[in-house]
Design goal:
The chain is an alpha/beta fold and 660 residues long. The protein is 66% helix and 7% strand. The protein has three domains: 387 residues, Na+/H+ antiporter like fold; 177 residues, NAD(P)-binding Rossmann-like Domain (Rossmann fold), CATH 3.40.50; 72 residues, Regulator of K+ conductance, C-terminal domain (Alpha-Beta Plaits, 2-Layer Sandwich). The strands form two sheets. The protein has a six-stranded parallel beta sheet, with helices on both faces. A four-stranded antiparallel beta sheet has the order 7-10-8-9. The radius of gyration is 29 Å and the shape is elongated.
């Protein structure tokens, strides 16, 4: 009855609110709260839900929406760019996990078919849980985040073949002919998605957008996503796979960002129901009946999955630390394994008791995932110390061909994402020598073909930084998304070169203090810079003059960054002259025609009295005059190197501009 369905829904949401609030106060992830709410509401605990099947249907919508949004955030071009990671790394992980679990199961007395089926169940990881955690932590763009995503994509693509093989293992089904037919269907669906991405989706949305109706736009998004999932289900494929393909098609259009923003609230709401539904499956009494067996199963699953996944991506040449973090993050059983397990029960491949033990172990690994992600960096560091240096820095053919560069007084860029790419382009245009470290072997290979000075490896390792001549470098820019990795790179670089000037890009202001404690010279928080760009654009819309906007920007930057520098000075361990110059900066300024300082000599004191900055050197043409004579007269085009506080340099800069 509708009333009963509404009551069940209210019970679930109410329990979820209570448990999540409680778990958040204990600093535990929301996902664990949702799982706990499902356990309490389920038939094996309080029995508050009368019809768990309705919850499972709503939860399936959550999985569909998750895969749909992942597809929108991804792209076919990005998928092709990391195709080796997806197909080689993902394929190795799946096959090796199945083989390892099957061998272990045979030792416990299972038949060959049952052992292989057990490998099927363990080989899949949870896209829903892992992607949610990575997105919440802002780690989707990190090397380990992209590596895990590549493997998860391959696993999701293999759900259908594994489902087809399940009846085959039980001696039922259509055998190899049925598998071949379904594979052909999958290829047709992927081909149709590619056609839709280029022609159908842009045509549909171009007509919808003309109506200027947000409701119509949202309905179209849901129609495309759910419709594709339904069609793939009719073709005998996974609905989640169809939703992912629909998302990929939309990602290639200019409407992808708006579509993502509109669908995310629905995804988050239904995903909470998915986690609740997983918890409802669990019978807590199984922990009391078989505690040692369950503990052993959980430990074996986590170890096998972590080690196999890490080894699979290391075979592609990815550094050990990144591979280890990705492997640990994948060390849980996935939501699609529950669907496989139910098929196994129907086909007689798994007894009811073994099914409950599997459910308990699987939910336990899911519950452990937030903690494993938190511990992953430290565990990965310990794991890396046990391996040969060759494997730690990456052991692919790319590393074998790497030649040690000859560099001095150069810039080291860590990470070739958007920030690293833009910085590299600017440095190249200015003729400034630089070298880039990137942990993605496929990016390195493609950029090397374009002549870019880029090396492959984990920059938190001493060998990689020495390979980049960190001892002779003038400056290092750490432009990666992983805050923990940024701290490790900064710490190692500071140890190797105490004179190195280190600039770090970070996401949040809260991450600045730990970086300054490690001896970083400058930290640029995206959170702060974004706020400046926002208020500058707001002021422009109100037609505030550009010079006033610049004054506001300079004032905010000056005050805030002076506060940030205060953090740096508190943690400064500089000695000698560097310690005396703490808080001072050096800046270069070009004399413009008509500027206040043009035609004046240093003895006139215009620059010193009006700004307080000191002239260190002057460049005229190709000639450089260090510590210039007081009689030196500044001309149009001269470049002066000044020493002063940030405020002094800001005032001095105005004296070099055209006053007309």
């Amino acid at each position: 009855m509708p009333f009963e369905g509404l009551r069940d829904f209210e019970v679930m949401i109410g329990l979820a609110i209570i448990t999540v609030v409680l778990f958040r106060r204990l600093s535990l992830p929301s996902i664990i709260g949702f799982l706990a709410a499902g356990v309490l509401a389920g038939p094996h605990a309080l029995g508050l839900i009368n019809d768990p099947h309705q919850v499972e249907q709503m939860a399936e919508i959550g999985v569909i929406l998750l895969l749909f949004t992942i597809g929108i955030e991804f792209s076919l071009k990005e998928l092709m760019r990391i195709r080796k990671l997806v197909f080689l790394g993902g394929g190795a992980q799946l096959l090796l996990t199945i083989a390892a679990v099957a061998v272990g199961s045979l030792l416990f007395g299972l038949t060959l078919n049952q052992a292989v089926f057990a490998g099927f169940l363990v080989s899949l990881s949870s896209t829903a849980i892992l992607m949610k955690l990575l997105m919440d932590a802002g780690e989707m763009d990190t090397p380990h985040g992209k590596t895990a995503l590549g493997i998860l994509i391959f696993q999701d693509l293999c759900v259908v073949p594994l489902m087809l093989f399940t009846p085959f293992l039980a001696g039922q089904g259509d055998g190899w002919s049925g598998i071949a037919i379904t594979t052909l269907k999958a290829l047709v669906v992927v081909g149709a998605a590619h056609f839709s991405a280029r022609y159908a989706i842009p045509w549909i949305f171009s007509h919808v957008v003309r109506a200027r109706s947000r409701e119509l736009f949202l309905l179209t998004i849901i129609f495309v996503g759910m419709g594709t999932a339904w069609l793939t289900a009719l073709a005998g494929l996974s609905m989640a796979l169809g939703a992912f393909i629909a998302g990929l098609a939309i990602s290639e259009s200019e409407y992808s960002h708006q579509a993502l923003g509109d669908i995310i609230p629905f995804r988050d709401a239904f995903m909470s129901l998915f986690f609740i539904s997983v918890g409802m499956l669990l019978d807590l009494s199984i922990f009391l009946k078989h505690p040692l067996l369950l503990a052993g199963a959980i430990l074996i699953i986590v170890l096998i999955k972590a080690l196999v996944a890490a080894g699979s991506v290391m075979m592609l040449g990815i550094p050990a630390r990144i591979a280890a973090v990705a492997g640990i993050s994948l060390a849980q059983v996935g939501e699609f394994s529950f669907i496989l397990a139910q098929a196994g029960v129907k086909n007689g491949l798994i007894p009811d008791t073994a099914y409950q033990i599997f459910l308990a172990a699987s939910v336990s690994t899911m519950t452990l995932t937030p903690f494993l992600l938190k511990w992953a960096p430290a565990l990965a560091d310990r794991f890396s110390k046990l391996l040969p240096k060759r494997l730690v820095r990456g052991a692919g053919p790319l590393m074998d061909r790497e030649k040690k560069p000859r560099l001095s007084d150069h810039v080291i860029i860590i990470g070739y994402g958007l920030n690293g790419r833009n910085l590299s382009n600017v440095l190249k245009s200015q003729g400034i020598s630089h070298i880039i470290a990137e942990a993605n072997p496929f990016t390195v290979r493609s950029q090397k073909k374009k002549g870019l000075h880029i090396v492959f490896g984990d920059a938190s390792k001493q060998e990689v930084l020495e390979h980049m001549h960190v001892h002779q470098a003038r400056l290092m820019v750490i432009a990666i998304s992983d805050a923990a990795a940024s701290r490790r790179v900064a710490s190692v670089a500071r140890t190797l070169n105490p004179r190195l000037h280190i600039i770090v890009r970070t996401r949040y202001v809260a991450e600045m203090e730990p970086l300054y404690q490690l001896g970083v010279n400058e930290v640029v928080p995206e959170e702060f810079e974004t706020s400046i760009e926002i208020f500058a654009r707001v002021l422009r819309k109100y037609l505030v003059p550009e010079d006033e906007i610049d004054n506001c920007v300079n004032a905010v930057r000056g005050d805030s960054y002076e506060m940030f520098r205060g953090m740096s000075r508190r943690h400064s361990h500089a000695v000698g002259i560097t310690g005396f110059l703490s808080g001072a900066e050096v800046g270069a300024f070009t004399v413009k025609k008509g500027a206040a300082v043009e035609g004046t000599s240093l003895r006139d004191g215009v620059l010193k009295t009006r700004s307080g900055a000191t002239v260190l050197a002057i460049k005229r043409g190709e000639d450089v005059a260090p510590n210039p004579d007081p009689l030196w007269q500044l001309h149009d085009g001269d470049v002066a190197l000044l020493l002063g506080t940030p405020d002094q340099l800001r005032y001095a800069g105005r004296l070099f501009e055209d006053v007309a």
